[in-house]
Amino acid sequence: MIEKINLNNILxxxxxxxxxxxxxxxxxxETQQLWEQxxxxxxxxxxxxxxxxxxxxIWAEFGKIITISVGYFVxxxxxxxxxxxxxxxxxxxxxxxxxxxxxNHFNGAQHVLCGHNAKEFDIPFIARRMxxxxxxxxxxxxxxxxKPWEVPxxxxxxxxxxxxxxxxxxxxxxxxVLGIPSPKDDIDGSEVAHVFYVENDIDRIITYCExxxxxVAQIFLRLRREDLLVEDEIIHV
Length: 237
Description:
Helix content: 25-40%
Strand order of the largest sheet: 5-4-1-2-3-6
Order of helices and strands: EHHHEEHEHEHHHHE
Shape: globular
Number of helices: 9
Mean pLDDT: 94
Low-confidence stretches: none
Radius of gyration: 18 Å
Distance between the termini: 30 Å
């Protein structure tokens, strides 16, 4: 079925998130207690809530989005281009800009979103942060009352599972086994908060995020048995 989808109708995406504050001491007392309760089973007894706070970026209630990168195909006749762009800065602006993109350019019934583990992480995280920031959900993110087959999202992790729902394959591993140049040649997810808060290098994070978007598109092409993108076909806008 994925062979029948028009590539021009897919918005590929990836997000980078960090703890909402640089460190645990930035939280008020009530939020510290809520964090401790939220993470007690993940931490066990060996790790304190303060030390564990470096992982807060994976929870929408305690983290925030620092960049959303997207990519989309512009295929005309025999010319294929893949355009990549990113939203960064204040989180509310990031979310508003992304919402405007969805509402203005990817709002049709034919449009779908695609990411790696996006159904479990990126898309719910974006939706939750929009609600927290008082932003109306775009139609593509408003999934209330929709049946699973009505949800306009694709997920390369889900496609690779082939129904084996206990199975998880990282983006790095999947690109390796499919013969796709690895996007992970600089930093990994565990380093993003340090690069953001300590090194103050958002450009490095944007580059990392955009490489992931390109990798997801490459995986999708491989699943369709199509030629991978070459450097000249990728345009950063």
